[in-house]
Amino acid sequence: MRPVDAAPSIATVPSKPTAPSSATGRPTEREPAGGGKQVRAAAKERRRFERREIRRFTRRSRHRRWGWLTAIAIVVVMAALLAVAVYSPVLALRTIRVDGAKSVDAKAVTKAIDGQLGTPLALLDYGAITTELNSFPLIRSFATEIVPPSTLVVHIVERSPVGVVVTSAGFATVDPAGVVLSTSAKRPDGTALIELGSAGTDSVAFEAVVDVMLALPASIRSRVDIAQAGSKDDVRLILKGTGAQIVWGSAERSALKARVLTELMAAQGKNARVEYDVSAPMSPVVRPR
């Protein structure tokens, strides 16, 4: 009798417990307690960090943008101020003041340029002002100054007479540049007569006389009656009253000659009728007349 095989035994494996299913029937994982808050806090911190990094990397461009905006604002403000200065009637010319006028008629100068009254200071026509003032022969130079809100000051430097020359129109008073300041039928008092022979005020002889006259001390220049120059190397002076003469020679070393002449005249006395020869200033000569 064959032995009967026993029925094989089937081993059962305990099944893995399944997680509770969701409404869809799919299993879900349970979140640990408090996990949602940590995730949200981490995300918030992450966003904060990103914003800080963005600000840090864009700081230079933001500063550059603010710099441009500031520069544009300054330009706009300056343009507005310039427009006010140019076109505002508040800064229009209302007063003209003339300084330094002695021989020149200040009222005549004011009248010559009063066509500028009412014009904004920034729009004054300085070309027209120059043209008007150049018509005054006694004005050697001038400068203008604006004094806000509405004043123009004209500073005048007058021409100074150096002597008188004889012309076909009479006695012409001239300045060192040979500009005729005035003309009269009678020789003006207190001004030296310049004798140049056939030469004129545009000659080297006239330049030599001018150099000598300007080199003289005021105390001696006021006593010169006649200044003669046949050439640039032969300047002679005749003093008022005594008729004393001064042989000057050329205009070279005029400053030294003026010092030597001053000492000679002090030694001889004011009323000496002599001839002072300072043409060689290191060897001056005094001759009786």
TrEMBL record:
Gene Ontology process terms (BP): cell division
Among Gene3D superfamilies, the record links this protein to:
membrane protein fhac (3.10.20.310)
| Keywords linked to the UniProt accession | Cell cycle, Cell division, Cell membrane, Membrane, Transmembrane, Transmembrane helix
* Pfam families in UniProt: POTRA_1
Could you name the Gene Ontology cellular component terms for this entry? Answer: plasma membrane
Task: Give the subcellular location.
Answer: Membrane
Instruction: Report the protein name in the record.
Output: FtsQ-type POTRA domain-containing protein
Species of the source: Terrimesophilobacter mesophilus
